[in-house]
Design goal:
The chain is an all-alpha fold. The protein has three helices and no strands. It starts with a helix and ends with a helix.
């Protein structure tokens, strides 16, 4: 902490930014894992299931989450 205190004007802000970056990385990793799982499952889907899945993905993308 002394190293950070000596070199950073606002250590709390630095920690906040680092935690935000870490959380975003964790969310992205979770999304990658979910997509890989969907890819594995997609081989077993019927046409109706695929249409529902595509609609859900499109809706999710449009929501901006």
């Amino acid at each position: 902490m002394r190293y950070i205190d000596d070199r950073v004007e606002n250590p709390s802000r630095l920690i906040e930014l680092l935690l935000q970056a870490w959380r975003k990385q964790q969310e992205q990793q979770a999304m990658v894992e979910a997509c890989l799982l969907l890819d594995e499952l997609s081989d077993q889907l019927t046409e109706e299931d695929e249409a529902w899945q595509q609609a859900a993905i499109t809706e999710w993308e449009a929501s901006g989450l």
